[in-house]
Amino acid sequence: MDWEVQVAGFYIAYYALMMRTHMEKYGTTEEQCALVSVKNHRNAIYNPYAHYPMEITVEDVMKSRLITSPYKLLDCCLLSDGAAAMIFATEEWAKKHCKTWERKPTIEFTGTGCGTDFMRMVDRPFPYPGVTHFRAKREAARMAYAMAGVKNPLKDFDCFEIHDAFSGVELVSYEDLGFCKEGESGPLLEEGLFDIGGELPCNTSGGLIGFGHPVGATGIAQGVEILRQLRQEAHPKRQVELRAKRGGMDSHGGTGTFVTVNIFERRD
Amino acid sequence: MKKVLNKLEVFTAEDPMPFLHPEGDPWKDVREIERIKLEWNLSYRHCLGKYSRFFLELEKGRFLATECPNCGKVWATPRPVCADCLTICKWKELPGMGTLVSHSISEFVPAFMKVETPYVLALVRLDGADTLFAHQLKNYGRREDIKDEMGVKVVYAKEPVAHPILLMCFEPL
User: Fold this and answer.
1) What domain range includes position A77?
2) Which of A210, A207, A216 lies closest to A83 in space, CA to CA?
3) Residue B163 three-state SS
4) Of A27, A101, A178, A227, which sits 20 to 30 A from B109 (CA to CA)?
5) Every domain of chain B and the residues it spans
Protein backbone atom coordinates (compact mmCIF):
# COMPACT_ATOMS: atom_id res chain seq x y z
CA MET A 1 0.00 0.00 0.00
CA ASP A 2 2.91 2.31 0.76
CA TRP A 3 4.05 2.10 -2.88
CA GLU A 4 0.57 2.32 -4.28
CA VAL A 5 -0.21 5.58 -2.52
CA GLN A 6 2.78 7.11 -4.27
CA VAL A 7 1.35 6.33 -7.68
CA ALA A 8 -2.25 7.08 -6.69
CA GLY A 9 -3.34 3.47 -6.69
CA PHE A 10 -6.38 3.75 -4.46
CA TYR A 11 -9.65 1.85 -4.34
CA ILE A 12 -11.64 3.57 -7.03
CA ALA A 13 -8.71 3.49 -9.47
CA TYR A 14 -8.33 -0.25 -8.92
CA TYR A 15 -12.04 -0.95 -9.21
CA ALA A 16 -12.03 1.16 -12.37
CA LEU A 17 -9.24 -0.95 -13.88
CA MET A 18 -11.26 -4.08 -13.11
CA MET A 19 -14.48 -2.70 -14.58
CA ARG A 20 -12.73 -1.56 -17.74
CA THR A 21 -11.62 -5.13 -18.44
CA HIS A 22 -15.27 -6.21 -18.05
CA MET A 23 -16.40 -3.54 -20.51
CA GLU A 24 -13.72 -4.54 -23.00
CA LYS A 25 -14.51 -8.23 -22.71
CA TYR A 26 -18.31 -8.20 -22.68
CA GLY A 27 -19.29 -4.79 -24.03
CA THR A 28 -20.81 -3.63 -20.74
CA THR A 29 -21.52 0.10 -21.03
CA GLU A 30 -21.11 3.10 -18.75
CA GLU A 31 -24.88 3.65 -19.08
CA GLN A 32 -25.51 0.16 -17.65
CA CYS A 33 -23.29 1.03 -14.68
CA ALA A 34 -25.15 4.33 -14.30
CA LEU A 35 -28.44 2.42 -14.19
CA VAL A 36 -27.25 0.64 -11.02
CA SER A 37 -26.84 4.04 -9.36
CA VAL A 38 -30.28 5.16 -10.57
CA LYS A 39 -31.88 1.98 -9.18
CA ASN A 40 -30.10 2.13 -5.82
CA HIS A 41 -30.72 5.83 -5.19
CA ARG A 42 -34.39 5.21 -6.13
CA ASN A 43 -34.72 2.23 -3.77
CA ALA A 44 -33.28 4.43 -1.01
CA ILE A 45 -36.23 6.82 -1.32
CA TYR A 46 -38.39 4.31 0.54
CA ASN A 47 -35.78 3.62 3.20
CA PRO A 48 -36.13 6.21 6.00
CA TYR A 49 -32.59 5.44 7.21
CA ALA A 50 -30.93 6.00 3.86
CA HIS A 51 -28.14 8.53 3.48
CA TYR A 52 -28.76 9.55 -0.13
CA PRO A 53 -32.26 8.90 -1.48
CA MET A 54 -32.62 10.45 -4.93
CA GLU A 55 -34.74 10.24 -8.05
CA ILE A 56 -32.14 10.58 -10.81
CA THR A 57 -31.68 9.54 -14.42
CA VAL A 58 -28.89 7.75 -16.27
CA GLU A 59 -28.07 11.11 -17.82
CA ASP A 60 -27.58 12.72 -14.39
CA VAL A 61 -25.04 10.03 -13.52
CA MET A 62 -23.29 10.33 -16.88
CA LYS A 63 -23.03 14.12 -16.48
CA SER A 64 -21.71 14.02 -12.91
CA ARG A 65 -18.05 14.78 -12.36
CA LEU A 66 -15.54 12.23 -13.66
CA ILE A 67 -13.60 10.62 -10.82
CA THR A 68 -11.81 7.70 -12.48
CA SER A 69 -12.97 6.45 -15.86
CA PRO A 70 -15.45 4.78 -16.21
CA TYR A 71 -16.73 5.95 -12.82
CA LYS A 72 -18.37 9.31 -12.23
CA LEU A 73 -19.26 10.85 -8.87
CA LEU A 74 -22.74 9.27 -8.80
CA ASP A 75 -21.33 5.82 -9.59
CA CYS A 76 -19.56 5.84 -6.22
CA CYS A 77 -20.81 4.65 -2.86
CA LEU A 78 -21.13 7.06 0.06
CA LEU A 79 -18.93 7.83 3.02
CA SER A 80 -21.47 7.37 5.77
CA ASP A 81 -21.61 7.18 9.51
CA GLY A 82 -23.88 4.62 11.05
CA ALA A 83 -24.37 1.57 13.20
CA ALA A 84 -26.16 -1.74 12.80
CA ALA A 85 -26.75 -4.71 15.05
CA MET A 86 -28.20 -8.18 14.72
CA ILE A 87 -28.75 -10.73 17.47
CA PHE A 88 -28.32 -14.42 16.69
CA ALA A 89 -29.59 -16.99 19.13
CA THR A 90 -30.64 -20.58 19.36
CA GLU A 91 -34.37 -21.24 19.29
CA GLU A 92 -34.25 -22.28 22.92
CA TRP A 93 -32.54 -19.07 24.05
CA ALA A 94 -34.79 -16.89 21.93
CA LYS A 95 -37.96 -18.46 23.35
CA LYS A 96 -36.78 -17.59 26.82
CA HIS A 97 -35.42 -14.10 26.24
CA CYS A 98 -37.06 -12.64 23.14
CA LYS A 99 -40.25 -10.71 23.95
CA THR A 100 -41.40 -10.74 20.32
CA TRP A 101 -41.02 -14.51 19.90
CA GLU A 102 -44.27 -16.02 18.52
CA ARG A 103 -45.35 -12.55 17.39
CA LYS A 104 -42.67 -12.11 14.74
CA PRO A 105 -41.73 -14.65 12.09
CA THR A 106 -38.61 -16.65 12.83
CA ILE A 107 -35.69 -15.96 10.52
CA GLU A 108 -33.12 -18.70 10.33
CA PHE A 109 -29.48 -18.19 9.35
CA THR A 110 -29.10 -21.12 6.97
CA GLY A 111 -25.94 -20.57 4.98
CA THR A 112 -22.64 -18.80 5.11
CA GLY A 113 -19.47 -18.84 3.07
CA CYS A 114 -16.30 -16.86 2.70
CA GLY A 115 -13.61 -16.55 0.11
CA THR A 116 -10.29 -14.76 -0.12
CA ASP A 117 -8.03 -13.52 -2.85
CA PHE A 118 -4.78 -11.60 -3.18
CA MET A 119 -4.92 -8.16 -1.57
CA ARG A 120 -2.66 -6.98 -4.35
CA MET A 121 -4.99 -7.25 -7.30
CA VAL A 122 -2.16 -7.65 -9.84
CA ASP A 123 -1.21 -11.03 -8.35
CA ARG A 124 -4.60 -12.63 -9.01
CA PRO A 125 -4.38 -15.64 -11.34
CA PHE A 126 -4.62 -14.60 -14.95
CA PRO A 127 -6.57 -15.09 -17.21
CA TYR A 128 -9.09 -16.82 -14.89
CA PRO A 129 -10.72 -15.04 -13.26
CA GLY A 130 -8.09 -12.36 -13.57
CA VAL A 131 -9.07 -8.91 -12.50
CA THR A 132 -12.43 -8.96 -14.28
CA HIS A 133 -14.27 -11.13 -11.76
CA PHE A 134 -14.23 -11.70 -8.03
CA ARG A 135 -12.74 -15.14 -7.41
CA ALA A 136 -13.34 -14.79 -3.67
CA LYS A 137 -17.01 -13.98 -4.24
CA ARG A 138 -17.53 -17.08 -6.36
CA GLU A 139 -16.04 -19.24 -3.63
CA ALA A 140 -18.06 -17.54 -0.88
CA ALA A 141 -21.27 -18.01 -2.88
CA ARG A 142 -20.47 -21.65 -3.69
CA MET A 143 -19.97 -22.45 0.01
CA ALA A 144 -23.05 -20.58 1.20
CA TYR A 145 -25.33 -21.99 -1.53
CA ALA A 146 -24.16 -25.54 -0.77
CA MET A 147 -24.86 -25.06 2.94
CA ALA A 148 -28.36 -23.65 2.38
CA GLY A 149 -29.21 -25.98 -0.53
CA VAL A 150 -29.58 -23.19 -3.08
CA LYS A 151 -29.58 -24.60 -6.61
CA ASN A 152 -30.81 -21.75 -8.76
CA PRO A 153 -29.99 -18.44 -7.03
CA LEU A 154 -32.19 -16.37 -9.35
CA LYS A 155 -35.28 -18.38 -8.32
CA ASP A 156 -34.24 -19.41 -4.81
CA PHE A 157 -33.90 -15.87 -3.43
CA ASP A 158 -36.54 -13.17 -2.97
CA CYS A 159 -34.04 -10.38 -2.41
CA PHE A 160 -30.31 -9.88 -2.22
CA GLU A 161 -28.11 -7.14 -0.78
CA ILE A 162 -24.94 -6.64 -2.80
CA HIS A 163 -21.72 -4.83 -1.94
CA ASP A 164 -22.06 -2.07 -4.56
CA ALA A 165 -18.91 -0.14 -3.67
CA PHE A 166 -19.08 1.25 -7.20
CA SER A 167 -21.89 0.77 -9.68
CA GLY A 168 -19.97 -1.71 -11.85
CA VAL A 169 -19.16 -3.88 -8.84
CA GLU A 170 -22.87 -4.69 -8.52
CA LEU A 171 -23.00 -5.81 -12.17
CA VAL A 172 -19.95 -8.05 -11.84
CA SER A 173 -21.36 -9.41 -8.56
CA TYR A 174 -24.60 -10.52 -10.27
CA GLU A 175 -22.42 -12.76 -12.42
CA ASP A 176 -20.14 -14.02 -9.66
CA LEU A 177 -23.10 -14.78 -7.39
CA GLY A 178 -24.54 -16.91 -10.20
CA PHE A 179 -27.63 -14.79 -10.97
CA CYS A 180 -26.67 -14.76 -14.63
CA LYS A 181 -23.92 -15.74 -17.04
CA GLU A 182 -20.73 -13.74 -17.49
CA GLY A 183 -21.34 -10.57 -19.46
CA GLU A 184 -25.15 -10.74 -19.16
CA SER A 185 -25.56 -8.53 -16.10
CA GLY A 186 -25.83 -5.21 -17.96
CA PRO A 187 -28.61 -6.20 -20.39
CA LEU A 188 -30.54 -8.05 -17.66
CA LEU A 189 -30.43 -5.01 -15.39
CA GLU A 190 -31.84 -2.95 -18.25
CA GLU A 191 -34.70 -5.45 -18.50
CA GLY A 192 -35.55 -4.73 -14.86
CA LEU A 193 -34.63 -8.18 -13.55
CA PHE A 194 -33.00 -6.71 -10.43
CA ASP A 195 -35.51 -3.92 -9.72
CA ILE A 196 -38.10 -4.09 -6.96
CA GLY A 197 -40.89 -6.10 -8.62
CA GLY A 198 -38.36 -7.88 -10.84
CA GLU A 199 -37.20 -11.49 -10.77
CA LEU A 200 -34.63 -10.89 -8.01
CA PRO A 201 -34.70 -7.41 -6.42
CA CYS A 202 -31.18 -6.39 -5.41
CA ASN A 203 -30.20 -3.70 -2.94
CA THR A 204 -33.74 -2.86 -1.92
CA SER A 205 -32.24 -0.81 0.92
CA GLY A 206 -30.43 1.39 -1.60
CA GLY A 207 -27.16 -0.43 -1.14
CA LEU A 208 -23.85 1.27 -0.47
CA ILE A 209 -24.65 3.81 -3.17
CA GLY A 210 -28.08 4.89 -1.94
CA PHE A 211 -28.36 3.66 1.65
CA GLY A 212 -24.75 4.35 2.61
CA HIS A 213 -21.40 2.77 3.39
CA PRO A 214 -20.48 3.17 7.09
CA VAL A 215 -17.65 0.70 6.48
CA GLY A 216 -17.71 -1.37 9.68
CA ALA A 217 -21.51 -1.37 9.89
CA THR A 218 -22.25 -1.99 6.21
CA GLY A 219 -22.34 -5.78 6.21
CA ILE A 220 -24.59 -6.05 9.26
CA ALA A 221 -26.84 -3.32 7.81
CA GLN A 222 -27.31 -5.54 4.75
CA GLY A 223 -28.38 -8.37 7.03
CA VAL A 224 -30.83 -6.04 8.80
CA GLU A 225 -32.40 -5.17 5.44
CA ILE A 226 -32.82 -8.86 4.57
CA LEU A 227 -34.43 -9.41 7.98
CA ARG A 228 -36.86 -6.52 7.39
CA GLN A 229 -37.74 -7.90 3.97
CA LEU A 230 -38.27 -11.45 5.21
CA ARG A 231 -40.42 -10.20 8.11
CA GLN A 232 -42.32 -7.96 5.67
CA GLU A 233 -41.51 -4.90 7.76
CA ALA A 234 -40.10 -2.80 4.91
CA HIS A 235 -41.90 0.24 3.47
CA PRO A 236 -44.69 -1.07 1.17
CA LYS A 237 -43.04 0.54 -1.86
CA ARG A 238 -39.81 -1.29 -1.18
CA GLN A 239 -41.19 -4.55 0.20
CA VAL A 240 -40.48 -7.51 -2.06
CA GLU A 241 -42.89 -10.35 -2.70
CA LEU A 242 -41.97 -13.43 -0.70
CA ARG A 243 -41.94 -16.63 -2.74
CA ALA A 244 -38.87 -18.64 -1.77
CA LYS A 245 -38.86 -16.86 1.64
CA ARG A 246 -35.11 -16.62 1.36
CA GLY A 247 -32.79 -13.63 1.17
CA GLY A 248 -29.05 -13.23 0.87
CA MET A 249 -26.29 -10.73 1.37
CA ASP A 250 -22.80 -10.34 0.02
CA SER A 251 -20.19 -8.16 1.64
CA HIS A 252 -16.55 -7.66 0.80
CA GLY A 253 -13.40 -5.85 1.80
CA GLY A 254 -10.49 -4.71 -0.32
CA THR A 255 -11.13 -5.04 -4.04
CA GLY A 256 -12.99 -8.29 -3.37
CA THR A 257 -10.14 -9.55 -1.20
CA PHE A 258 -12.28 -11.06 1.52
CA VAL A 259 -15.89 -11.86 0.72
CA THR A 260 -18.70 -13.28 2.81
CA VAL A 261 -22.07 -14.43 1.59
CA ASN A 262 -24.83 -15.08 4.13
CA ILE A 263 -28.26 -16.58 3.61
CA PHE A 264 -31.37 -16.10 5.73
CA GLU A 265 -34.67 -17.96 5.51
CA ARG A 266 -38.07 -17.34 6.98
CA ARG A 267 -39.72 -20.21 8.84
CA ASP A 268 -43.50 -20.04 9.09
CA MET B 1 -8.48 40.93 13.45
CA LYS B 2 -8.91 37.18 13.36
CA LYS B 3 -9.32 35.93 16.90
CA VAL B 4 -8.94 32.27 16.00
CA LEU B 5 -6.09 31.60 13.60
CA ASN B 6 -7.18 28.19 12.40
CA LYS B 7 -10.87 29.06 11.91
CA LEU B 8 -11.99 28.10 8.38
CA GLU B 9 -15.68 28.91 8.34
CA VAL B 10 -18.91 29.12 10.25
CA PHE B 11 -22.02 27.70 8.64
CA THR B 12 -25.51 26.47 9.45
CA ALA B 13 -25.96 22.76 8.89
CA GLU B 14 -29.15 21.45 7.34
CA ASP B 15 -31.22 18.76 8.94
CA PRO B 16 -30.00 15.64 7.09
CA MET B 17 -33.24 13.76 7.79
CA PRO B 18 -36.12 16.25 7.45
CA PHE B 19 -38.51 13.39 6.58
CA LEU B 20 -38.12 12.11 10.15
CA HIS B 21 -38.96 15.53 11.61
CA PRO B 22 -42.26 16.72 10.13
CA GLU B 23 -42.74 19.05 13.14
CA GLY B 24 -39.44 20.82 12.52
CA ASP B 25 -35.79 20.15 13.27
CA PRO B 26 -35.37 19.17 16.93
CA TRP B 27 -31.63 19.95 16.71
CA LYS B 28 -32.01 23.47 15.32
CA ASP B 29 -30.35 25.13 18.31
CA VAL B 30 -27.11 23.25 17.67
CA ARG B 31 -26.93 23.51 13.89
CA GLU B 32 -24.46 26.43 13.86
CA ILE B 33 -21.12 24.85 13.00
CA GLU B 34 -17.58 26.18 13.24
CA ARG B 35 -14.97 24.45 11.12
CA ILE B 36 -11.29 24.72 12.06
CA LYS B 37 -8.13 23.42 10.46
CA LEU B 38 -6.07 20.81 12.26
CA GLU B 39 -2.88 19.26 11.03
CA TRP B 40 -1.49 15.88 11.82
CA ASN B 41 1.96 15.11 10.49
CA LEU B 42 3.51 11.71 10.85
CA SER B 43 7.08 11.10 9.85
CA TYR B 44 8.80 7.81 10.37
CA ARG B 45 11.65 5.64 9.17
CA HIS B 46 10.32 2.98 6.88
CA CYS B 47 12.25 -0.14 5.97
CA LEU B 48 11.70 -1.56 2.49
CA GLY B 49 12.92 -4.91 3.79
CA LYS B 50 13.19 -7.80 1.33
CA TYR B 51 11.89 -5.57 -1.46
CA SER B 52 14.90 -3.23 -1.14
CA ARG B 53 16.90 -4.63 -4.05
CA PHE B 54 13.98 -4.01 -6.42
CA PHE B 55 14.23 -0.30 -5.64
CA LEU B 56 18.04 -0.17 -5.57
CA GLU B 57 18.12 -1.71 -9.08
CA LEU B 58 15.52 0.78 -10.33
CA GLU B 59 18.09 3.47 -9.50
CA LYS B 60 20.42 1.74 -11.97
CA GLY B 61 17.72 1.51 -14.61
CA ARG B 62 17.09 -2.22 -14.19
CA PHE B 63 13.68 -3.83 -13.62
CA LEU B 64 13.72 -6.86 -11.36
CA ALA B 65 11.07 -9.47 -10.76
CA THR B 66 11.33 -12.58 -8.60
CA GLU B 67 11.24 -16.13 -9.91
CA CYS B 68 10.22 -19.15 -7.91
CA PRO B 69 12.93 -21.83 -8.18
CA ASN B 70 10.33 -24.53 -7.44
CA CYS B 71 7.29 -23.80 -9.64
CA GLY B 72 8.93 -21.29 -11.98
CA LYS B 73 6.33 -18.56 -11.55
CA VAL B 74 7.68 -15.07 -12.17
CA TRP B 75 6.26 -12.47 -9.81
CA ALA B 76 6.32 -8.87 -11.01
CA THR B 77 5.43 -7.09 -8.68
CA PRO B 78 8.26 -9.02 -6.94
CA ARG B 79 7.57 -11.21 -3.92
CA PRO B 80 10.26 -12.61 -1.61
CA VAL B 81 8.21 -15.78 -1.17
CA CYS B 82 6.18 -17.48 -3.90
CA ALA B 83 2.52 -17.13 -2.91
CA ASP B 84 1.59 -20.33 -4.78
CA CYS B 85 4.10 -22.80 -3.29
CA LEU B 86 5.74 -20.83 -0.45
CA THR B 87 9.28 -21.25 -1.81
CA ILE B 88 11.86 -18.48 -1.34
CA CYS B 89 12.25 -16.67 -4.68
CA LYS B 90 15.31 -15.51 -6.63
CA TRP B 91 15.70 -12.14 -8.35
CA LYS B 92 15.35 -12.12 -12.13
CA GLU B 93 15.84 -9.16 -14.47
CA LEU B 94 13.07 -8.45 -16.99
CA PRO B 95 13.51 -6.42 -20.19
CA GLY B 96 10.99 -3.83 -19.00
CA MET B 97 8.68 -4.19 -22.00
CA GLY B 98 5.05 -5.17 -21.69
CA THR B 99 1.42 -4.97 -22.79
CA LEU B 100 -1.29 -2.69 -21.40
CA VAL B 101 -4.06 -4.86 -19.90
CA SER B 102 -6.30 -2.10 -18.57
CA HIS B 103 -6.11 1.56 -17.63
CA SER B 104 -8.17 4.21 -15.89
CA ILE B 105 -8.02 7.96 -16.24
CA SER B 106 -8.49 9.84 -12.98
CA GLU B 107 -9.44 13.44 -12.51
CA PHE B 108 -9.58 13.10 -8.76
CA VAL B 109 -7.09 12.12 -6.14
CA PRO B 110 -7.56 11.89 -2.35
CA ALA B 111 -6.13 14.93 -0.53
CA PHE B 112 -3.42 12.88 1.20
CA MET B 113 -1.87 11.71 -2.08
CA LYS B 114 0.61 14.02 -3.73
CA VAL B 115 -0.24 13.14 -7.31
CA GLU B 116 -1.10 15.57 -10.12
CA THR B 117 -4.41 15.10 -11.93
CA PRO B 118 -5.37 13.94 -14.41
CA TYR B 119 -3.32 10.79 -14.26
CA VAL B 120 -3.53 7.35 -15.81
CA LEU B 121 -3.15 4.20 -13.76
CA ALA B 122 -2.04 1.33 -15.98
CA LEU B 123 -2.27 -2.39 -15.46
CA VAL B 124 0.61 -3.94 -17.38
CA ARG B 125 1.60 -7.50 -18.20
CA LEU B 126 5.38 -7.37 -18.43
CA ASP B 127 7.13 -9.65 -20.91
CA GLY B 128 8.49 -12.62 -18.99
CA ALA B 129 6.18 -12.15 -15.98
CA ASP B 130 3.24 -14.28 -14.84
CA THR B 131 1.51 -11.50 -12.88
CA LEU B 132 0.53 -7.93 -13.62
CA PHE B 133 2.12 -4.69 -12.47
CA ALA B 134 0.27 -1.44 -11.69
CA HIS B 135 1.88 1.96 -12.14
CA GLN B 136 1.22 5.28 -13.84
CA LEU B 137 1.28 5.67 -17.61
CA LYS B 138 2.88 8.94 -18.73
CA ASN B 139 3.56 10.74 -22.00
CA TYR B 140 0.58 9.06 -23.64
CA GLY B 141 -0.34 11.98 -25.87
CA ARG B 142 -4.13 12.24 -26.10
CA ARG B 143 -6.48 10.17 -23.93
CA GLU B 144 -8.01 8.57 -27.01
CA ASP B 145 -4.57 7.31 -28.03
CA ILE B 146 -4.41 4.96 -25.03
CA LYS B 147 -5.48 1.52 -26.25
CA ASP B 148 -5.55 -1.67 -24.22
CA GLU B 149 -3.24 -4.33 -25.67
CA MET B 150 -0.79 -1.65 -26.83
CA GLY B 151 2.91 -2.04 -26.10
CA VAL B 152 4.38 -0.13 -23.16
CA LYS B 153 7.83 0.10 -21.63
CA VAL B 154 9.30 0.91 -18.26
CA VAL B 155 11.00 4.32 -18.23
CA TYR B 156 13.30 5.45 -15.45
CA ALA B 157 13.30 8.85 -13.76
CA LYS B 158 16.09 11.24 -14.71
CA GLU B 159 15.47 13.67 -11.83
CA PRO B 160 15.64 12.88 -8.09
CA VAL B 161 12.35 11.46 -6.79
CA ALA B 162 10.45 11.69 -3.50
CA HIS B 163 9.92 7.92 -3.13
CA PRO B 164 11.82 5.00 -4.72
CA ILE B 165 8.72 3.65 -6.53
CA LEU B 166 8.70 6.91 -8.49
CA LEU B 167 12.02 5.91 -10.05
CA MET B 168 9.95 4.25 -12.76
CA CYS B 169 6.71 4.62 -14.67
CA PHE B 170 5.26 3.33 -17.96
CA GLU B 171 5.21 4.97 -21.36
CA PRO B 172 3.79 3.81 -24.68
CA LEU B 173 6.34 2.18 -27.01
Assistant:
1) 2-267
2) A216
3) coil
4) A27
5) 7-36, 49-172
Adjacent-strand bridge partners of B74: B67
Residues in A touching B79 (Cβ below 8 Å): 123
Q: Say whether A21 and B102 touch across the interface (CB within 8 A).
A: yes
ipTM: 0.85
Phi, psi of B118 (to 5 degrees): -75, 155
With 90 as the cut, is the pLDDT of residue A136 above it? yes
Q: Among residues A68, A65, A72, which one has the least CA distance to residue A31?
A: A72
**Predicted pLDDT at A211:** 96
Tell whether the model's pLDDT for residue A200 goes beyond 90: yes
Supply the pLDDT for residue A268.
85
The pTM assigned to this predicted structure is: 0.90
Total count of domains within chain A: 1
Q: Using a CB–CB cutoff of 8 Å, tell me whether A2 touches chain B.
A: yes
What letter represents residue A15's amino acid? Y
Q: Which pLDDT band, with edges at 50, 70 and 90, does A153 fall under?
A: very high
Q: Give the strand order in the sheet containing B90-94.
A: B74-75, B63-67, B90-94
Please report, to the nearest 10 degrees, the dihedral formed by the alpha carbons of residues B152, B158, B160, B161 taken in order: -10
Q: Across all residues in chain A, what is the average pLDDT?
A: 93
Asked if A17 lies within 8 A of B131 by C-beta distance, the reply is no
What is the longest distance spanned by two Cα atoms in chain B?
72
Mean pLDDT of A97-120: 92
Output the domain CATH number for residue A214.
3.40.47.10
Contact B109 A8 (CB under 8 A): yes
Query: Does the beta-carbon distance from A7 to B101 stay under 8 Å?
Result: no
